[in-house]
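Incident log, support desk, overnight shift.

02:14 A customer reports that sequence design results differ from what the structure should imply. Their input is reproduced verbatim below. On-call engineer (initials T.W.) acknowledged and began investigating.
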């Protein structure tokens, strides 16, 4: 090859390389952040820029900033540049690009990296409408709200695949801002766990702290657990309350739902006995918000599917009726009396001088819910008659009467004074009046007859002894 041709080829190669560099056709670098691009305020983050082999230098630029960071390539394979931020603040939040310098010039810039700082604003609330319990294939709306006047919300779905949605906020009449995110076709194929953040439009990479996580519960068909309460279904206001979810299936976790409520607390399952798993949900001290209908579900840690729901359990809170609606407590009485024979017809009467819509009769220690009857107005009293006919020894116990409003059937009045009912298997079949006074009289008569019998026996025995002595 002649020297002239060699020089011509070199000149052509140089012109071609300059043309490629000017056109930005050098491979653009890859940019990413570790541990991620969404960083809590005060936490460290590292930005990496990776180019081709033989890179001399990396440069990192932040959009809107004239300054840039220059770094020599690391000695690691792949020629990566490392840019460290020891403490993340709002001043580092923004969009970044990186470049690299090679023997042929500068590369084109990388795709953007959006670096977000969280925790600058207080966390918003996240709730599911109408309920976090969703049937398979159903739809639900997630509501993200804040009292800080934030202008936008971002909803993120955890797990794989990760998803996010952004919406402008709407201002409610009470001053809170909110965004409603529709979520459709919820299935148990994977977990549906969400969080939301809030931000303002002029700083879209400066987010609030994350909301508490919200997991949607999709009931399945596996064995339903049982929901129990040791205290019984009627609980006095201020009393401690614990619900227990148990199953003969070895569930790893349990969830408790209250009808109409947004909370869906979870507890890990424990195994107090072989073949039994359970979890306790403490809810005390009880207030009016605890009244309602509850169900529980069992699940496994490695599965997104939950069990079928337990049978419902109604919790009734006594002493939490609307202020002023029940000025007096109801009373309870029994006919024909508090002591009756088995098989008799017994009526318990709940009464009140003030307006009552519904009366409830509760037996102390009974697992079943109280009986309810609409009240009737009779003899200047509102009342309800509860028939226990025919009674057995199982009806013996302590009874109390309550009242409630149809607008909130789970909030009850204060309890009436207790009434003790005794059912005996040994009373005569046709007593005239089974009152306490008559029973006392019968008992006294029996004692008198017994005493007379003893005296007669002693008299006869003494007379026989005297005759024997005379014969001697």
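02:41 Re-run completed on a clean worker. Output:
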């Amino acid at each position: 090859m002649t020297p002239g041709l060699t020089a011509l080829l070199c000149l052509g190669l140089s012109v071609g390389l300059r043309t490629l560099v000017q056109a930005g056709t050098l491979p653009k670098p890859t940019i990413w952040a570790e541990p991620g691009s969404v960083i809590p305020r005060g936490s460290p983050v590292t930005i990496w820029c990776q180019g081709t082999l033989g890179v001399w230098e990396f440069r990192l630029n932040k959009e809107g900033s004239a300054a840039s960071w220059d770094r020599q390539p690391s000695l690691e394979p792949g020629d990566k540049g490392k840019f460290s931020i020891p403490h993340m603040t709002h001043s580092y939040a923004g969009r970044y690009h990186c470049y690299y310098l090679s023997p042929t010039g500068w590369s084109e810039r990388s795709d953007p990296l959006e670096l977000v700082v969280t925790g600058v604003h207080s966390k918003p609330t996240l709730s599911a409408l109408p309920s976090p319990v969703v049937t398979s294939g159903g739809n639900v709306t997630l509501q993200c709200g804040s009292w800080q006047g934030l202008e936008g919300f971002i909803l993120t779905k955890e797990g794989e695949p990760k998803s996010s949605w952004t919406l402008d906020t709407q201002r409610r009449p009470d001053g809170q801002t909110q965004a409603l995110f529709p979520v459709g076709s919820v299935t148990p194929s994977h977990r549906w766990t969400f969080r939301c953040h809030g931000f303002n439009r002029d700083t879209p990479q400066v987010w609030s702290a994350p909301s508490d996580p919200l997991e949607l519960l999709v009931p399945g068909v596996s064995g339903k657990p049982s929901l129990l309460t040791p205290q019984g279904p009627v609980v006095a206001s201020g009393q401690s309350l614990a619900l227990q979810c148990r199953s003969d299936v070895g569930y790893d976790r349990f969830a408790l739902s209250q009808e109409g409520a947004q909370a869906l607390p979870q507890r890990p399952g424990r195994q107090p006995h072989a073949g039994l798993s359970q979890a306790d949900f403490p809810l005390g001290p009880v207030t009016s918000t605890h009244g309602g209908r509850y169900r529980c579900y069992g699940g496994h840690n490695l599965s997104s599917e939950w069990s079928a729901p337990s049978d419902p359990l109604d919790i009734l809170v006594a002493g939490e009726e609307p202020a002023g609606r029940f000025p007096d407590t109801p009373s309870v009485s029994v006919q024909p009396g508090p002591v009756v024979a088995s098989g008799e017809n017994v009526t318990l009467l709940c009464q009140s001088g003030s307006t009552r819509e519904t009366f409830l009769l509760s037996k102390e220690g009974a697992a079943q819910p109280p009986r309810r009857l609409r009240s009737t107005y009779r003899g200047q009293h509102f009342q309800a008659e509860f028939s226990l006919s025919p009674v057995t020894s199982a009806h013996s116990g302590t009874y109390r009467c309550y009242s409630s409003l149809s607008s909130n059937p789970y909030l009850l009045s204060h309890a009436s004074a207790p009434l003790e009912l005794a059912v005996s298997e040994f009373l005569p079949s046709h007593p005239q009046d089974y009152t306490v006074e008559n029973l006392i009289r019968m008992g006294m008569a029996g004692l008198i007859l017994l005493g007379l019998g003893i005296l007669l026996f002693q008299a006869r025995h003494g007379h026989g002894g005297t005759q024997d002595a005379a014969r001697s």
